[in-house]
Amino acid sequence: MIDLTGDGRADIVGFGEDGVHTALATGGGGFAAPRRALAEFGYAAGWRVDRHPRLFADVTGDGRPDLVAFGDDGVAVARGNGDGTFAPSRLVVPDLGYTAGGWRVERNPRFAVDLTGDGRADLVGFGDDGVVTALGNGDGTFTAPRLVLADLAVEAGGWTVERHPRFVTDLTGDGRADIVGFGNEGVVVAQGNGDGTFAPPKLVLPAFGFDAGGWRTTRHVRLLADVTGDGRPDIVGFGEDGVWVALNDGAGGFGPARRVLDDFAIGAGGWLPDRHPRLLADVTGDGRADVVGFGDTGVRIARSNGDGTFAAPVLALTGFGYRAGEWRTDRHPRFAVDLTGDRRADLAGSGEDGVWTAPNAGDGTFRSVRVRRDAWDLPVWDPALLSYARAVRAMQSRPISDPTSWAYQAAMHGRSGSTPSGADWNLCQHGSWHFLPWHRGYLYFFEQIVRAEVIRQGGPADWALPYWDYSTPARAALPPAFRERTLPDGTPNPLFVAQRAAGLNAGGRLPASATGSATAMRTTVFTPDFGGGRTGPQHFFNAYGELEFTPHNDVHSLIGGLMGDPNQAALDPIFWLHHANVDRLWTVWLRQGGGRADPADAAWRNQSWAFRDASGNRVTITTGAMLDPGRDLGYVYQDGVGAPAALESMATFAAVPAAEPELVGASDRPVDLAGRATAVDVPVDARAATESAGAPRALLNLEDIVADANPELVYEVFVRPLGAPRAVPHYVGNVSFFGIEHNGPRGDTPHGFRRTFDISDWVAAQGAAVPGAAVSFRPVALAAPEQDGEPAVPPVRVGRVSIFYAQ
Fold it and tell me: What is the DSSP string of 593-616?
């Protein structure tokens, strides 16, 4: 793992069958979707771990790591582009390779380090006859290799890989790398001269050697790291009876070796090299390396005291261990690297089923990161889904007075009738900039309650709430586990709910216009465009963001039944997967960059919310304490799956204009929507029509929308020029009515529901004065509603359809 982009966060690099693959860190302990970054250096091209070392180092001095590969024919370099990809490689040294020079992994260690202090990596190899170097030219090429030291090699001094570890690092702080070797008699140092050569080796410490102390590579790990914070590497050895340290003296040598900790060793704790990796990394951010050990029961940390000693080890995480997770050194590499950019080491490991991370908690411990996975990527009764079903059934059996019950948790979102004293009911935030953070906290604590029940029943301890990514047609049907009437044991399936739209439980798919998020993703500011307008805490208000409109409201309405009513929606188990997807789309929006960011306003970040934890206790959390799910809450989403693609049919979204818009046209009558296609004309007055040729900003408003109930339909909205009946209608977006009962005179807001569409591009495309728009509404649903005299769907009245212009 290495930082490929310069953002201070370690990224994943893997050498696969077909080349180099990378996955960039996203900052919360997660990674973007893996991608092939270079179609070279893969297994299919003949590259092998036991023949061809592949390293990363900055060979040009531009601050970006490049790929240095020692192949059959010599050294090849692929320069880093700074974005996780690499330029095509070129052979730069026809030597130091398996065929070109006869170099072998088991005999000849090779390094890429700065020998001259110019900030560019040079090559160092321990050949059979001695030390060979090739200086970097600054353009990704190197000078011809030359033998600079007839020592520290197999045939020159008897140095072997299986007995004598060698390191190339800057011992003195002069920016030039020196050689540190652990020989038979102890520690040998050859100081760099700054020109690619080295001073003659000298024995600086009669310890840590094959004969000087009986140190063996098969039993005793030796590392170099700065444990005091002075910027110079010290020796840390995991010996037979504990941890030994020799401090750097600043002059190219080391002080005496001393045992500082009776742990992390074969004879002190039972630590074995083939079972228990031990690393040195700064886990506190104080600039001093701490001991990180992957033991039987998990990860143990011994924090540096700054004087070459360490505090007593503590169990920092029950995971990544030989027994705690079944991690094996020959199958599961583990790392201690900074994944978040806070200069504190986090944990990462490539496990049996994927990459696992544990972000640093800031106190010398780590948070296990759970992965929320797409339900469509899981088998029908994967343990994540089966455990969820069984936990739901257990929660449904609890009385509503129990805060961990299914009914109580649903009532926190909404419930008809009065709220008992002390109950945290009817708290959901809609039509407000608080919509996304409130629901994030709601899901997080609900997930805790479910996980506690999953564990109680013997399910996976790392259970995480799945999500439903419905953005593609193949996945727009309910995941199969929610359509099965019974569980595998034949008992009723609590994930199946009969009160859903006709056809949905039979595999019907939601329409594409209702499940896409492209319009929301094109917004660039959180408030009011993406996440909603600025309000105080508000159960329901009228400041909806684009993400809440589509897909959130649309999916609620089309699933219908319990999901169509805010006071019952959370009783349907699919509610929680739907909202997990909405929460995921928030992270996807931020990941796009381009200035996208969460609000900095203290009124938003400091807003506190009350929820119930796994024990039923009331807990509070602020919005600002849960903005980074991986770091703050310990979960990330399955990476790269369902990242929303822009749908060609979607209208371009433009930010709300700074100038006050001017009303230029309005319908002369209300529009009644009753499950059938309908239309209304919106004429623009002559003066405004003339001015429209200047390509103003144009907004289409649906105002004062009222209804007694959600019709559980979505209407696609189209415009065409007034007086041009043969013109192709232009799709501008959707309107749906989740929560409409809370708007209007009988609801939480004094006015009706409203929806605004940006039609600037359509107006500009007309190329002449626009006389007005014929606005049409087309209902979309899983199945056409039946008509039997009276309309089968509750009618909705749009009080006025209007057009505003603004410069």
Answer: -TT------HHHHT-EEEEE-TTS
Q: Rounded CA gap, 733 and 513, in Å?
A: 8
Residue identified by tokens 């024990």 is 615
Q: What is the mean pLDDT of residues 229-254?
A: 96
C-alpha to C-alpha distance for 797 and 802, rounded to whole angstroms: 14
Cβ neighbours around 103 below 10 Å, total: 25
Between 435-456 and 574-591, two packed helices, what is the crossing angle to 10 degrees?
130
Record the tokens describing residue 604, joined without a space: 């938003």
- The rounded distance, in Å, linking the Cα atoms of 735 and 756 is 9
Closest CA relative to residue 699, chosen from 738, 651, 741: 651
pTM (predicted TM-score):
0.66
Burial (CB count <10 Å: 0-12, 13-18, 19+), residue 461: middle
Is the alpha carbon torsion for 110, 54, 3, 322 positive or negative?
Answer: negative
Distance CA 191, CA 181 (A): 11
Give the dihedral sign, CA 13/17/19/24.
Answer: negative
226 vs 529: CA distance, rounded Å = 48
pLDDT score of 749 more than 80: no
User: Closest by alpha carbon to 748, among 739, 757, 756?
Assistant: 739
**How sure is the predictor about 791, in pLDDT bands with cuts at 50, 70 and 90?**
very low
Question: Distance between CA 437 and CA 726 in Å, rounded?
Answer: 46
Name beta bridge partners: 77. Answer: 68, 90
- Count, residues in the chain: 807
Distances (CA, A) of 650 to 249, 514, 527, 770: 66, 11, 21, 21
Instruction: Say which range, 65-69, 495-499, 690-694, 782-786, has the weakest mean pLDDT.
Output: 782-786
Contact 261, 271 (CB under 8 A): no
- Each residue's pLDDT tens digit, 172-227: 999 999 999 999 999 999 999 999 999 999 999 999 999 999 999 999 999 999 99
Q: How far apart are CA 349 and CA 610, in angstroms?
A: 35
